[in-house]
Amino acid sequence: MDALKQYLPLCWLRNNPLDLPRSVDFFKQNLLFYFVAEYFMQANMTDDPLESFTEVSIETLLTLIFIGVMLFFNRTLYAYVQVTTAIIFCANIIGLFVIPVLIWLTMSEEPLSYYLLGLLLFWDYAVVTHIIKQVLSINIIASLVLSLFYFIATYFGAFALGQLL
Prior knowledge:
Blueprint: H1 2-7, H2 24-45, H3 49-73, H4 80-108, H5 111-136, H6 140-164
Helix pairs in contact: 2-3, 2-4, 3-6, 4-5, 5-6
């Protein structure tokens, strides 16, 4: 519970992930929750549970690899657990808001549900941008570009690889 309180301000664009505690158990819990939540969202969008499982597995793997490569080139691989936990934890918190919106969107297709989903996706982008900016000590433009590359590599990469399989 203590780690939860320490990581939560990241969702509000506060704190530096490098200042947060390194907890492999908290990382594993967040990774499991992330996988289940992403699977639920993906399964909601497709009719094939095996395809959803494959895409979410690829997406999770690409996320872990992208963060590792980014930290490797920045020579901050020692912070892998904190940074990965930070990104996944914030995605989990935002995902708690996205899931009901996706259900609402699926059932009603209200324009407001699309706007709210777009706002939540922007929030996720802003959080990842903040984390990358803090960890790599780069300017906002560079972190915006790297965040965009992160989302393209993980989400579109998973979709593309899932289509190939």
